[in-house]
Amino acid sequence: MTEQRQTSEEYIVKSFQAEDLVKLTNEANQRHLEYSQTNPNAKANIYLQSVETLDGFAECKGYDYNKGVDYNEVFKTYINTGFQASLLGQAIEEVNKMIKWRLTDEPIADNETEEYKIMENREKVRCTIFLGYTSNMTSCGMREYIKYLCQHKMIDAIVTTCGGVEEDFMKCMAPHYLGDFYLKGKDLRLQGLNRIGNLVVPNANYCKLEAFMVPILQTMHKEQKEKGEIWSPSKIINRMGQEINNEDSIYYWCWKNDIPVFCPAITDGAIGDIIYFHSYNEPGFICDLSQDIRKLNDLALNAKRSGQLIIGGGVIKHHICNANLMRNGADYSVYINTGFDMDGSDAGARADEAVSWGKIKLDTRHVKVWAEATLVLPILIGETFAKNFDLAKRTL
Known about the structure:
Layout: H1 3-6, H2 18-38, H3 42-46, H4 71-76, H5 83-100, H6 119-124, E1 128-133, H7 135-139, H8 142-151, E2 157-160, H9 162-171, E3 177-178, H10 185-190, E4 193-196, E5 199-202, H11 203-227, H12 233-244, H13 250-256, E6 261-262, H14 270-281, H15 289-301, E7 306-311, H16 315-325, E8 332-337, H17 351-357, E9 366-370, H18 373-386, H19 389-392
Parallel strand pairs: 1-2, 1-7, 2-6, 7-8, 8-9
Antiparallel strand pairs: 3-5, 4-5
């Protein structure tokens, strides 16, 4: 292992775990019972005796700007800041574990193949990193951060939605614009403008997407008929990434660096609309989802170590988690979303629910950051992939 990977992470501290709390609570309950029976007065109850020591637990403390403006040091203190900052600090630790892990970190198993008993080969084996994100991440400025990861091949696979695909290509042809959350829908509709949160996308941008995709779809359909090529969502996206030939595109880099992009809901958007209209002009185009589910599940099943970084919820979250069920759970898991679990939705479910299904391993730490992703994803990527660039990149 390199010296960098052997060095302990700064600011890693012990936090309360359930078993610690149970032990302290049982001891405190007994003392409280004895104390309350012998001291029946208000002041004594207000100043109930604390446990004797909390040695070994982290002190809650933030950064002091009297030391100067140093965001590197600010982010280091997040883990001891409390609330969602501490969860973001833990998420940074988990992603750095994904980046730094090599098979050489593990003892050689008795049933290991001869290939992976050779230390040089073991050093090349990394954690397989799955990145999932919803379409709004491509709609907004998070697209550029995701493109960076793909440009340097820092991840192994993507799962996203139809909008997460098409809006990347649309931005290669025309921009999205900053608007306001409270622009009136009726006024926008009459002007041919579409609102995504506080962003505005002209209908003309979708016309440009159609002009780009229709010839590609026609060519793919021709190859299906003449060569027997059966297309899957990942193959369609790969072809589009090749044809766009634009370094601003996420999927150009996915094509160039052989990063598969899975989109189980590929018809749920403008791409689906284009396929729909094409079916009337030339029926019979086949999009085979079964190819992709096998490819994704095999990728997880064959991973020596698996990490999942999931931004948002819904189909992209479950699709990655379910793939990791094939290997009895991911080793590292980080969620960033604003969903709550009280409605029973998978989108809002905490990571511990995935443990119950076998989608996250029993003995791992998993982190969910309750936050709007645009606030925290740039920090997370900066403190992990960018800061550990040489360890994270898989390009020459």
